[in-house]
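We treat protein structure as text, and this decision shapes the records that our systems exchange. We quote a single record here, exactly as it is kept in our systems:
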Amino acid sequence: MVKTKYQKLVSDLKMEIQSGYYSENEKIPSLREIQTLKSCSLTTAKEAYRILEEEGYIYVINKSGYYVHKNINSIILGPQNEYFETVEADDRIQQIMNTVMDPKLISFGAAIPADRYLPISELHSAYKRALLYQDTFSYGDLQGNPQLREWLAIRSSMHGFRVSAKQIQITTGCTEAITYSLFAVTEPGDTVIVPSPIYVGLFQILETLKLKVVEIPYRPTEGINTNEFEKLIKRHKPKVFLFSANFNNPNGYLFREDTKMELAKICFHYGIHLIEDDIYGDLFHTGTRPKPLLSYFSQMIGGPKSFLCSSFSKTLSPGLRIGWVTTKTGIQSISKIARAFKISENHPTQICILEYLKRQTYERHLKGLRAQYQKLCLDYTNLLNKESDGNLHITKPDGGFVLWIESKLDGDKLLMEAKKLGMAIAPGSLFGLSKHWNHFFRINVSVGLSPKIREKLILFAKRFRKNGTSKGTF
């Protein structure tokens, strides 16, 4: 992406502040001085300083000048509300994903649940029963199997988002559900605001649809700072807020309920459409299933639209490829888009899932799954902390089965080093458009903790020790 002159100046000054060239409360060059230092116009300098002031990097004292923010260390952590006129992620992502998905490596990198934690044998039996249905091999309802949609509607209503079967569209996985939702409310050139870090696949969708992006950082205690959020809305006028409020991938964050309510209120006030990825919502580690943010959003006819997207990929099987969009205000738009791409959804697989749900207790399966994932997250954290001598900063997830880890090492280089150990990790650079996550990486704990895997993790973690106790320390 080619930056404008003021964007380049903003980046240069941020880098100087982040590197410590300018420290807290230190006066920075005046507008006239920066013109000379950076060979730019006064207009460029004014716009750059305005952005730096708005984002909290600097403050102004009348008749004195501009100064670095008093609490700059709290400001420079994470992405600072960065704006991207174009998204150019696909080639970079594909190159890294080729390594992450290499079947010769232990896949700590892909967020795919291992078969040992899924009801594979029960699904085999369900598929056999599904094949006996008279209409199994015919086209099904384009909107999706009515019985499956009815089951999803009842379950959605139980967890705070009351809908009918008519307000659900079955899709080929959650990614397609999100894509349809974006199709329904955007045009090329529209702006979408997304938290950062966030699921890597979203950037490929945003690039394909030619959408602009604003990144807003997650905040550990609340999810998203609503004051920051509203400022960005006023400045960039986004069309859509695309997010995961419940156990975001990769950091496992859960939005506070008061934050959800306030974000819903802000979005409705400014007419912003909501697209919520709730694929990890069932995988909470403690307490009860959190409500989706959309449950707090006004569904007034003529107001902004909202879409809740999910799938069975993280709970039953990623290969089933059955997802859905739930929407009270946009089902006609979603169904129209679906008709443009296909005649029907995968009919046999939908029947298979119904057969499974008829004979198995889904909630009992989830209860066991959550307990296993919570324990694995804790066991991995303890092992990695111990074997690295505490040199890794591991974010404690509120749900899901991935760990978000910070180190002093570059994540992309770390991927190559992990490959030498027969492992694949997901470098942090995948999860944002900016470079703020280069020293992070994500690992999937659902590969389990067999003796072989434990041995690999120990060798991997020892490489972070300051004294380099493992051969080949980097």
Observations:
- Residues 181 and 210 are 15 Å apart (CA to CA).
- Residues 468-474 have pLDDT under 50 and may be disordered.
- The longest helix spans residues 362-387.
- The chain has 16 helices and 16 strands.
